[in-house]
Specification:
Oligomer: single chain
Helix content: under 10%
Largest sheet: 11 strands, antiparallel
Shape: globular
Strand order of the largest sheet: 6-5-4-3-2-1-11-10-9-8-7
Number of strands: 13
Number of helices: 2
């Protein structure tokens, strides 16, 4: 997410649920049919009624604090990462002055910002300006996009602590939205992994696309070590221009939907 935050994906939160326990031993395909059933010559073909109930999609909460690692695998980069939210605004910070990369992305008062302090082959002087992305963007718009995500399946992220997660795929595609032989092209794709017991608790995001323009493979990840729903700290850097207030012609957003202009 070295350019305009696309996911998360930006970039990335709501009601807590507890779905039925799912075993990591018996993997399932996209149809929700177990491998054993697929191997059975007498098994019936999958039908709409054979799909398990789909869990709710990822949502970014209004208040949260997370600590983890930001990775750019093709460059061998692995740096500290924080992600915090307060009152619907949120901020990511990856790396720092002593690391090979250092940048921050914010959703702040209906505005999307990105500011890169340090990146391989990017001159430190003069400092790069803070980029204010045109248009209105906020948590409601992000969550509305996340509600279009496709469910991949339940998985286990293995590590010092195994985490049972739901894996979702979300993306932005340019061109025709009609099925068939029409021109279209991928802009940004993200794989989002949220806790099976709470879709607003994020554990990992793998994201690819033009928003990662500084990386040769356009491929950057982040993983969370901790994630709580306590209010975090969000600070707009002094070098960033002030947010643009919503205008009557633009209207405002609530729950992912545009409200009529006053």
């Amino acid at each position: 997410m070295t350019g305009a935050t696309g996911s998360v994906l930006v970039l990335a939160l709501g009601a807590s649920i507890t779905p039925p326990a799912r075993s990591p031993v018996e993997p399932t395909g996209g149809s929700g049919v177990s491998r054993a059933a697929l191997d059975d010559d007498n098994a019936s073909p999958p039908t709409a009624t054979s799909h398990p109930e789909q869990p709710p999609p990822p949502q970014l909460p209004a208040d949260f604090r997370g600590v983890g690692r930001y990775l750019v695998p093709d460059l061998g980069i692995d740096v500290p990462f924080t992600w915090q939210g307060r009152g619907g605004d949120s901020q990511m910070v990856a790396g720092g002055p002593e690391h090979p990369i250092w940048f921050t992305n914010l959703i702040y008062q209906n505005t999307l910002y990105t500011l890169t302090y340090k990146w391989p082959n990017i001159p430190l002087e003069p400092p790069r300006p803070c980029s204010k992305i045109p248009g209105i963007f906020n948590r409601d718009i992000l969550n509305a996009t996340l509600r279009t995500a496709r469910f991949v399946g339940p998985e286990v992220l293995q590590g010092s602590k195994d985490r049972h997660v739901d894996h979702w795929r979300v993306g932005v595609v340019g061109g025709s939205t009609k099925p068939g032989e029409f021109f279209r092209f991928p802009i940004a794709l993200g794989d989002v992994y949220v806790d099976q017991g709470d879709p607003s608790q994020w554990w990992q995001v793998l994201q690819f696309g033009f928003q990662n323009l500084f990386d040769p493979q356009l491929d950057e990840w982040f993983t969370m070590t901790t994630f709580s729903h306590l209010p975090g700290q969000v600070t707009l850097p002094a070098s960033c221009p002030p947010p643009t207030p919503p205008t009557p012609s633009a209207g405002t957003w609530q729950d992912g939907q545009p409200l009529p202009a006053p």
